UniProtKB/TrEMBL annotation:
<keyword id="KW-0813">Transport</keyword>
<keyword id="KW-0029">Amino-acid transport</keyword>
<comment type="similarity">
    <text>Belongs to the ABC transporter superfamily.</text>
</comment>
<feature type="domain" description="ABC transporter">
    <location>
        <begin position="4"/>
        <end position="237"/>
    </location>
</feature>
<keyword id="KW-1003">Cell membrane</keyword>
<comment type="subunit">
    <text>Homodimer. Forms a membrane-associated complex with FtsX.</text>
</comment>
<dbReference type="GO" id="GO:0016887">
    <property type="term" value="F:ATP hydrolysis activity"/>
</dbReference>
<protein>
    <submittedName>
        <fullName>Methionine ABC transporter ATP-binding protein</fullName>
    </submittedName>
</protein>
<comment type="function">
    <text>Part of the ABC transporter FtsEX involved in cellular division. Has ATPase activity.</text>
</comment>
<dbReference type="GO" id="GO:0005524">
    <property type="term" value="F:ATP binding"/>
</dbReference>
<keyword id="KW-0067">ATP-binding</keyword>
<keyword id="KW-0547">Nucleotide-binding</keyword>
<dbReference type="GO" id="GO:0005886">
    <property type="term" value="C:plasma membrane"/>
</dbReference>
<dbReference type="GO" id="GO:0006865">
    <property type="term" value="P:amino acid transport"/>
</dbReference>
<keyword id="KW-1278">Translocase</keyword>
<keyword id="KW-0472">Membrane</keyword>
Length: 237
């Protein structure tokens, strides 16, 4: 059984204005994410990628179909159980979504607090994470004092703090220059190899997926139009 299973999943949003048409953001997606892999989800803006991420992360209910994470079907869960699933999935974003009023340390401590990790264990865990992402000297900096690449490293450390099995990266390198993008790609590869975290990389940047993903799914208008190994999908026709 795959770690994440989507079966004929659809998500329709109500019309944006009165009398408008409902928006079929995701329209019948079936896919598996296997434990230990890096899956790339690529497609142009509006293809439904972010909606797919929010369905996997149980931030939105599906309109149709089923999402199963680690053998548990989300539609059958109580809100309390869904919160547990969400805590088992780390997320990183294009705009990093850090808390500006908190230091790097405070940002990484936040998910530990939410997960109920005793404060006595925070020091060791946060130090370990800061070393892993190469920011051991930035614990007391505020996000505004960091470069974009450093901010995303904090985002990754925060996403990993509560030891999730899954990391969802939603356009995580889209605000970064090519060199910094490569650094973050290398870091995500280490997250996968050294920590065994399964990663779903959502992006419109084909190069990122080409460099990082084992397998690729191509989305268009809410559907999967192509899928396969990265090598096959990007091979010249
Ligand atoms: P992508 O991440 O690939 O750019 P999205 O999942 O953000 O795609 O969007 C897919 C479609 O759903 C787009 O047409 C978008 O305008 C629409 N959409 C996304 N979120 C909402 C929402 N909350 N309400 C209405 N329509 C939405
Ligand atoms: P915030 O601004 O979100 O409160 P802080 O960085 O001020 O975040 O610190 C949050 C908690 O972590 C505080 O209790 C602080 O004393 C502790 N802390 C911060 N940095 C360190 C550190 N390097 N070693 C040990 N404890 C720290």
């Amino acid at each position: 059984m795959a770690l994440i299973e989507l079966r004929d999943v659809a998500k329709t949003y109500p019309p944006r204005r009165r009398g408008g048409d409902p928006v079929r953001a995701v329209d019948g997606v079936t896919l598996d994410v296997n434990e230990g892999e890096i899956l790339g989800v690529v497609g142009y803006s509006g293809a439904g990628k972010s909606t797919l991420a929010r369905l996997i992360n149980a931030l939105e209910p599906v309109t149709r179909g089923t999402v199963t994470v680690a053998g548990q079907e989300l539609t059958r869960m109580s809100e309390g159980e869904l919160q547990k699933v969400r805590r088992g999935i780390g997320m990183i974003f294009q705009q990093f979504n850090l808390f500006h009023s908190r230091t790097v340390w405070g940002n990484i401590a936040y998910p530990l607090k939410v997960a109920g990790v005793p404060t006595s264990q925070h020091q060791a865990r946060i130090s370990e994470l800061l070393h892993f992402v190469g920011l051991a000297d930035k614990a007391h900096s505020y996000p505004e004092q960091l470069s974009g690449g450093q901010k995303q490293r904090v985002g990754i450390a925060r996403a990993l703090a509560a030891s999730p099995k899954i990391l969802l990266a939603d356009e995580a390198t889209s605000a970064l220059d090519p060199e910094t993008t490569q650094d973050v790609v290398d870091l995500l590869r280490r997250v996968n190899r050294e920590l065994g975290v399964t990663i779903v990389v959502i992006t419109h940047e084909m190069e990122v997926v080409k460099n990082l993903a084992h397998r690729v799914v191509v989305m268009e208008n809410g559907t999967v139009v192509e899928s396969g190994s990265t090598f096959d999908v990007f091979a010249d026709p």
